[in-house]
Design a protein that fits this description.
about 230 residues, alpha/beta, Rossmann fold, globular
C-alpha cells in the first residue's frame, strides 16, 4: 500500500457559483487523485488545503524553539513546534507527494511558502555539517515521488520561453523538492488563464490528461524512473 500526501495551495475553491472562479490547479490535482483512487482505492490518502487553511508563519520564537535541544525545550516551545512536527511526519510517511499551486506574482502563494517553512527544518528534513565544505546542508529524506501541478495567467515560463526569467514558482519548487525527499519529480503546467482563449482551454485540457496519465503510470506498481521529468508546457 502506498501513502499519498496531497497539498493544495490556491486560495480559490475547486468549485464556485461562478465556474470562472474555480481553481484550475486544484481541479487538475483532483483529476490525478481520482485517477489514482480508481486504480488503487486501498492506498492511504492525506489531504491539506493550505490555501484555505494556511499554517502559521514561523516567528522568532519558533526559530528559538527549533534551535533549542529537544530535551531542553519548554512545554511552550514543544507546543510551538507541534504543527511543524505533524506536517513533517506527514511528509516523512508519504511515498507520493502531490502539490498544486497557482502562480501568484510570479512565485508561490505565501500559504504554500509557510507550509515549506514549517517543514524545511534542521535535524528533521536536513542536517548541517561544515565539514562538507561549501555544501553543509544535506537532505535527510529520500525515495519519494513528487508531482507538481501549476497554473499561471501568462505563458512561456519554461526553459527557453519568452518569460523564462520571470517564472519563480516551478524553479523554487524544484529547489525545495529535495527537502521533501523527492528523487523523482513530475511537472504539469496549465497556462494562458488571463488570455482565456483556445490556447488556455487546450492547456488545461492537456494538463488534466497528463494528470490522469501520470497517476495511472505511477499507481500501476511499476518502479518510478530515477530522473526528473518536466511535463506540461504547451
Amino acid at each position: 500500500m502506498s501513502i499519498i500526501l496531497h497539498i493544495d495551495s490556491s486560495v480559490r475553491a475547486a468549485k464556485n457559483p461562478n465556474p470562472d472562479h474555480d481553481s484550475i490547479s486544484k481541479n487538475i490535482a483532483r483529476r490525478f487523485i481520482d485517477s489514482w483512487k480508481r486504480n488503487r482505492p486501498e492506498d492511504e490518502y492525506i489531504y491539506r488545503d493550505v490555501g484555505v487553511n494556511p499554517p502559521d508563519f514561523i516567528t522568532q520564537d519558533w526559530i528559538g524553539a527549533v534551535f533549542t535541544p529537544e530535551e531542553k525545550r519548554t512545554p511552550a516551545q514543544r507546543e510551538r513546534l507541534a504543527l511543524s512536527d505533524k506536517l513533517i511526519a506527514e511528509v516523512a510517511k508519504a511515498d507520493v507527494i502531490l502539490i498544486s499551486s497557482p502562480m501568484y506574482n510570479y512565485g508561490m502563494p505565501a500559504q504554500l511558502k509557510a507550509w515549506f517553512d514549517q517543514i524545511v527544518r534542521i535535524d528533521k528534513t536536513f542536517d548541517f555539517d561544515l565539514s562538507r565544505g561549501d555544501y553543509p546542508l544535506q537532505p535527510l529524506l529520500s525515495g519519494k515521488t513528487l508531482i507538481v501541478v501549476t497554473s499561471s495567467g501568462e505563458f512561456g515560463f519554461e526553459k527557453g520561453g519568452i518569460r523564462e526569467q520571470s517564472g519563480h514558482l516551478a524553479p523554487h519548487l524544484r529547489t525545495l523538492s529535495k527537502y521533501l525527499g523527492a528523487d523523482t519529480m513530475y511537472e504539469i503546467a496549465a497556462e494562458y488563464q488571463e488570455f482565456g482563449d483556445e490556447r488556455h482551454h487546450a492547456s488545461v485540457t492537456n494538463a488534466k490528461k497528463q494528470a490522469e496519465s501520470i497517476a495511472l503510470e505511477l499507481s500501476d506498481s511499476k518502479p518510478a524512473p530515477s530522473f526528473n521529468r518536466e511535463i506540461g508546457h504547451v
